[in-house]
Amino acid sequence: MSDAVVLGLDVGGSSVKYRLASATPSEGIPEALAQGTVSTPKHDPVAGLAAIARDVTALHRLVAVVVGIPGLVDEASGTVLRSANLPALDGLALGPALSAELEVPVGVINDGRAAAVAEARWGAGSRERDVFTLALGTGIAGSHIVDGRVVDGAHGIAGELGHVVVEPSGARCACGQRGCLETVIGAPALRRAWNRAGGHGSPKDLLSAYEAGDARAARIIERAAAALADAILTLLALVDPGVIVIGGGLASAPHRIVERAAALVAERATFHRVPAIVPAILGKWAGAVGAVSEARELAGRVVGASAG
Ligand SMILES: [Zn+2]
Fold first, then answer.
1. pLDDT digits (tens, 9 = 90+) for 92-103
2. 57, 48 Cβ separation under 8 angstroms
């Protein structure tokens, strides 16, 4: 048996990314002893994830696991409250169930939060102690991270920049309010606006049309950028972050909405201190890196508790 290891799992709708690292804390990013992708077990997720963990750690002494889940998670109890992509997990006390199977502590974390922690600690935010990460995709997810830890408020919902109202009489949001940022720059909102304007295809096609000088595309991009700028100015006034890291599907490639929003923020800022607005750099492994580093902390807490 080799030294103690920790495992991070980033569970997606179709695949699970895993990263195995030494349990011993290090200065830099937790180096991968093994890393890879396997199919998501859909029908019996507890047995399936336990089997993945056993396979990956067969030659090692596993001491802690953290699982990143796409959905609403109660971290304190390790319960998945709701997961749109993986309904088999809904309401499941995944942490305790996996812990009973593997006989090690198992934590459960929201996948976006895991990726945000990784970007703040070792990615694009690593030079600042106060980082705000924003993931632009179907929804808009935000996390405020100070000294490598998420500041999640009294009820665990801080950072929801996607539900800041930017158009008070705008479209109804999934959350029930009108005119949230998500209703203007979420991927479905961009697709709807583009199709309503007579365009075809996805937000990527919208961006291509914009690059090609399409005036209808330019109006949509301008409206989206203005909405994002409003939200970022609110963020600067309330949080005053040292850097804003932007990732997610919509932010990959040169992202004109983000570039234009950053320019508008710089023009409109008065007392605000405008931080750098930079792209995320850890890419698709960010969630697994965040999960494995949380697993290291979990292992440390367990050792500390048994020593005390
Ligand atoms: Zn909303």
1. 999 999 999 999
2. no
